[in-house]
């Protein structure tokens, strides 16, 4: 198991992330990181390789990101084509269906990468934490905003227990299909799952 | 990526699995396979190593199992301490709670192993197929028997859409908790999930 090669002395100060790079340059870096990640996997990825591929100094990379886990999680977050924040159709069912419509492409592109990262994160607590902080929590926050709107509209009872498990139901939809049926979750399947599982569990069917 | 080292000429005939080993000897073999699997992982596991560890000939192994994927899946199936078949408490909620009570130990013991295998199965279609056939489908069949009894008792409407997605909801419970909360699913959590998600989705709450 390889750990990040970042020097430890600036571990905390680097936490304050101030972008000195142009958005274009940042985007280039993010894309290079994902490219490398696809080629060599998380454990094989080094800050040296990222520096070489992007013609940056390692100092720049460490100034910009806390370390390898954060760099990878940030690259994933910023190249994600779908963010839940933008979705507000006026109904819970509409919002959930809109997420499915927007996310299919993203899922197909990323699934191999994410599978590899999920596996790597079991042996790399720093990566696990970075993925949770930078990638998973923001999506959960956005999902909760969407659910709170549904509660405010009276579509879901405020004390409905399934409100705590929407992410779990969604995970199940994505993971069980390849596992059980050997197929990728497609739009038809996901839209059906929303009506069969998520809305009834929330008492919003 | 390593493929099975089994000779191809007996690929189909070996499919007919006739046990010439005593149950004790079979059990020994299964335990040795899981031991080796924990040590070297699926890709590192060879039939030679299994033969050496168990003091068997490779011919015996191939006569008994179709190949490495089937040997591994069978070993997992036969050392599983919980089988759904035995569970029948008289109510759906009781059956589901009984599964949770029996399965916690099993999950903790196997989770690392199963995670490794889930990852390996993405690159090894034969393993994926063997796990599905020998490990996942029998459990799904047993789960469906349990659900059919609930339908027959009138606890679930026969055309309830969520009936097709119970496995998916269960997968979500197990996978989302470590991913999102960084914690293993424990009994309290799983029992709550049954009441919050599975029973309401089935209209059986």
Description of the structure:
The structure is a homodimer of 205-residue chains. Chain A is an all-alpha fold and 205 residues long. The first copy, chain A, has two domains: 8-71, Orthogonal Bundle (Arc Repressor Mutant, subunit A), CATH 1.10.10; 80-201, Tetracycline Repressor, domain 2 (Orthogonal Bundle). The first copy, chain A, contains eight helices and no strands. Chain A has helices at residues 23-44, 47-54, 58-64, 68-79, 92-123, 125-152, 166-181, 187-201. In chain A, helix 1 packs antiparallel against helix 2, helix 1 (23-44) packs across helix 4 and helix 4 packs parallel to helix 6. The model of chain A is unreliable at 1-16 (pLDDT under 50). At the A-B interface, helix 5, helix 6, helix 7 and helix 8 of A face helix 5, helix 6, helix 7 and helix 8 of B. Chains A, B: This is TetR/AcrR family transcriptional regulator. Chains A, B: InterPro entries: Homeodomain-like_sf (IPR009057), HTH-type_TetR-like_transc_reg (IPR050109), HTH_TetR (IPR001647), Tet_transcr_reg_TetR-rel_C_sf (IPR036271), TetR_C (IPR011075). Chains A, B: One of its GO terms (molecular function) is DNA-binding transcription factor activity. Chains A, B: Residues 1-24 are annotated as: Disordered. Chains A, B: It comes from Streptomyces malaysiensis subsp. samsunensis.
